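Form P-L/3: holo structure prediction, ligand adenosine monophosphate.
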Amino acid sequence: MNVFKGIIDGEIPCDKILEDDEFLSFYDINPKAKIHVLVVPKEEILDFEEVSPEKMKSMTAFIKKVTSKLGVDKTGYRMITNIGADGRQEVPHLHFHIIGGERLSN
Ligand code: AMP
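OUTPUT (holo model):
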C-alpha cells in the first residue's frame, strides 16, 4: 500500500494543512526547508503523466489555496513533482512538493 493512500484513508496520521473533497495537503515528514508541504489528490493517480487536464485544473486551484494559507504566495516557493524512476519518485501517488519559508539554495 502506498503511504499517501494510508494518510488519505485516515489510517496513517499526518499534520494536515488543508483538505476538500478531492485533495489533501500535509507537512512532509522529512522537510527539506522551513516549509515543506505535500499536496495529493484523494483519487489514486500514479503521477503527473497519468493526471487529466481537468483534474489538474482543480488541483491547481487547491494548490493556490494551500500556498495562500502558508503565506508563501507572497514570499515565493519551489514546487516540484517527481515522476518515475529517473525522477526518483518514491511514493507511487501523484504529489506536489511545496518548499519555501526561507531563501532556498540553487
Ligand atoms: P517523492 O520522492 O517525490 O516520492 O517524495 C515522497 C515524499 O514523501 C518525501 O519527501 C517523504 O519525506 C514524504 N513522506 C513519506 N512518508 C510520509 C509520511 N508518512 N508523512 C509525510 N510525508 C511523508
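COMMENT: The helical segments are 3-8, 53-70, 72-75.
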